[in-house]
Model the fold of this input.
Amino acid sequence: MPVAYTPGLKVTPRLRQSARRVLPIEGEVLVAVGDRVGATDVVARTLMPGDVRPVNVANALSVPAGDVPAAMLKKEGDTVAVGDVLARSKGLFGMFQQEYKSRVEGTIEAISGVTGQVIVRGEPRPVEVLAFLAGEVATVLPGEGCVVEADAAYVQGIFGIGGEAYGPLVMVAAAASDELTADMVKPEHAGAVVVGGARMTGAAIRRAVEVGVAAVVSGGMDDQDLREVLGYDLGVAITGSEKIGTTLIVTEGFGEIAMARRTFELLAAHAGQQAAVNGATQIRAGVMRPEIVVPLTEDEQAEIVEPEHVAGVLEVGTTVRIVRDPHFGVIGTVPELPTEPTVLGSGSKARVLSVAVEGREPVVVPRANVELVEI
Amino acid sequence: MTDLDPANINVILATDCGSTTTKAILIQKVDGQYRQTHRGEAPTTVEEPVADVTVGVTNAVTEVGELAGRKLIDENGEVIRPASGDVGCDIYISTSSAGGGLQMMVTGVIAEMTAASAKRAALGAGAIVMDTIATNDKRQPYQRIERIRELRPDMMLMSGGTDGGTVKKVVEIAELIPPARPRPRFGSGYQMPVIYAGNKDAAETVTETLGDSVALSVVPNLRPTMEVENLAPARDAIHDLFLEHVMAHAPGYDKLIKWTNAPIMPTPGAVGDILKTIAQRQGISAVGVDIGGATTDVFSVFPGADGEPVFNRTVSANLGMSYSISNVCAEATMPVILKWVHFDMDERELRNRVKNKMIRPTTIPQTREALVFEQAVAREALRLAYEQHKAFATTLKGVQQQRTVGDTFSQDTGGQTIVDDMALDLLVASGGVLSHAPRMEQTAAMLVDAFQPRGFTRLAKDSIFMMPHLGVLASVHPEAATEVFERDCLIQLGVCIAPAGKPKPGKLCFKYQIDGVAADDEFAEVLHHSGEIACGEMKLIRLPAEQEARVRVEPARGFDCGAGRGKPVERKVRGGTVGLVLDGRGRPLDFEAREEVAGWYEALELYPE
Done:
């Protein structure tokens, strides 16, 4: 039986999810192995070095660079405040001395006798890392952070905007094919993760920002709306740092596309529970997709069994979704996987597969244009 | 390195791990000659759930094996060597641009001089240059430090100062690096590699300044004097460090490095090597383009200021057909792209389609409409990439020119582009959208529309995107690489004949006459044939690759076909799978009406029913 690798997004009712939470630079880890943590608990903390300001003291004092170390009144490691005299030239027989007063505050990091530059580093900024996943600390990475683990329902989106957000899941659409419109977003959704069905409209996004919704999740969105929300045309799919007032996650793609039924039902089953979401997307090597994680309650942990699944293998009987026009969004099963390349409508030759869809003729599409859907 | 005797190498397996697709080819000795026999491809696997490049390699190689009826992978999922009967291969080699390729920052003292030389060295080695830092880049020092910290390059190349020149300015730049505490992209347990290729008198102070904040390698100055560029030592150091540091930390590459018989090369470095070889062997000016999913590389070999051939490469980091397709649409703008589409399309739907391609980069167009649109985007991506290349491929700046009285009014101080569209002899296309176009005519048309060659220009395409494989093969087995290149790699598309000048509607652009001895009766008529091309008109004359002909062109007043305005030109040409493209649209190309485009597409038989 022919098999092939094909990409797919993860949507699963139960998964032992682990979140690696690390600081950008070395710092202090505040938790120990076995600790229970909430999603917004601080697990590690550090001080980021402040901004660096090189100051050309040689120019300021009109002395050769080599004379700067001798002219310095402060040494490496000293702290300076705005207005402190950093350096003073010898002048002529002690006359005509020039002074340089610091215009920045911080610590002197380096003094160079080659270039006459003095490097002043500003005050450090505190940086904290939250647990993101409510669960148990499985590993402590000394000086770096920790790994938090929990049994969770897990949904990978296809594209997102904005960073990490937290809140209870609120289903505002009755069906996976319902558009998410502005009137469905209510003031009581402030701080919640709002889930729609098909496309989220531009007006709905603006409304969500207005009422303070933590995140909006839906099947699709229009590129035109994305451009209006961002204020520019997104060129490359590297996101996560946008500050638009909420986090957005689309699960299927751009345009009027309904959320996959399985994804919608999974989220609906956890309505009211706390979710952690992250819109950060990087579509490059080492791909990063947006995610929605709902830690399971103790009752759910007893009930839901982790499905067995072989990731990434396309074979006869697999359920796939077509991810390119003209059949974009269609879900079906694979009745056969012919090995010989076939000529497409575009005139190109490619390896294809047929997709059997309930109630209609099977469609033949390039293998490159499907993705696996877990069932 | 392989210790096999080249004479005993009969089966060669080569892969190229692109950011989207891993391509494998099989080269076999057939009747005493090396021929490329089979190819296969599979999606590149550097993302979860797999995150191991060798899985994609194994899939692509398995496909080649299935098609060739040859078992290439053993039960442990590794390449079988040596070849014996229908099993295994003698050598296995690979190139890679997966993981976003090699990402570098370069520094120099003056942006247009040493920093430009450093950039040329990095690009020539196959890197993407994320940023160039120089003392005159109009940024504050703290902004430069922030930039180094934010970008997290795979490595840095420092240049600056000619030998015996400034030390202070070079050290000033070096002083920015330790406070930035640069961290490389992959892995946290190793230091960022930095190559110093600047003023040799500053090397010691730079070493002291950088201390143990980075892993420093010192190589000879890449601009020892204003008049001389010496890029080879820096390029070699980049290749070594690429393997030692960058590749070793990308997912699965530690395994892949052990599999190959020669060091893995960055894909563009390998393509550049093979193009240089062609241009030097044939004594011609050539441009090659490789349009990928994320980036577009342009390579050129033109005579420099001293008449010696100069190789240049540029990478347009955000011009590509999948990951970067949305950026092409943003930079070129949708109305400009839609000028190349000869039927109505809904802009809103198109925008969504573009974004869907961006988020699912491995999909391919299934319908004719989708193909026409994708090829329209490709024209603009190629045009923008070529513009960037022209601006970069210049004579050395800062070189004092000896002037005579006659030069008084030509203020030539260096820095002019050496890319001359009229002198261009050969234009080679590679990369998915060009190589896999269903019709060769489409590839030729995309090249002509985007590059707008002038005069007589030979068009060719890399048949199945084999240039990277052959570039690395040349380092192990040059004979096999050359044989396959000549026989199987390049497909001659034909010749474009396009006089430069501003077209006037309804007027004559040029007259032509074609003569020759027909190898086949079918072409007897074509070979005794003359005609006229009006302004704005295009015409395709079928002439096969094995057929030679003499073509005489008499441009109308105001048009130049290589000999000056209105002056006739006669050339010997060879046909191709497309033939002769007679282009009366003038240069530079300027048009508005969609009907014109439909006429051109029809004339070139691009999208027949």
